[in-house]
Structures are given as structure tokens and as C-alpha cells.
Design brief:
Blueprint lengths: L1 H12 L18 H15 L5 H4 L5 H17 L2
């Protein structure tokens, strides 16, 4: 999962160092349009839906991974 999310980010802003605490906006340089592209990429890659209000809690790369793991776990439990 981590590598897939990194690839989505690389596809948007190019390859760069991504640490767990890298800020999506400040460190990785994603603007609001880039963030939408990342969310859409995650939805497609992992087969989930992400609501706008859920996006507000995602500030760092690690937040993204934790959020996706929780979302996928919920998806599995609802089957």
C-alpha cells in the first residue's frame, strides 16, 4: 500500500523524499487540485470512496496510510 500511494504522489509532483511525517501540502507540495488528484487516485487504486469531510483529517503521508488502512478494513468488514 505504501509504495502504491508513493507512486500516486510521484505521478503528481515527481519523485522526491517522502517520510512518514511529510506534510502533504508543505513538504510534498500538493496544492488543492493535486490533493483531489491524489484522493481520486486512491479511490481508484483501492476501490473505495472518500468523502470531502474525511479528507480534512489527512495532513501527512502517514495520515494518508492510516486513513486508507482504516477505510479498507471497514470495507472488508462490511462485505
Amino acid at each position: 500500500m505504501i509504495d502504491k500511494v508513493k507512486k500516486l504522489i510521484y505521478d503528481i509532483v515527481g519523485e522526491q523524499e517522502i517520510g512518514d511525517n511529510s506534510s502533504i501540502e508543505d513538504d510534498l507540495g500538493l496544492d488543492s487540485l493535486d490533493a483531489v488528484e491524489l484522493i481520486m487516485g486512491c479511490e481508484e487504486e483501492f476501490g473505495i470512496e472518500i468523502n470531502d469531510d474525511e479528507v480534512d483529517s489527512i495532513k501527512t503521508f502517514n495520515d494518508t496510510i492510516v486513513f486508507l488502512k482504516q477505510k479498507l478494513c471497514k470495507k472488508q468488514n462490511n462485505k
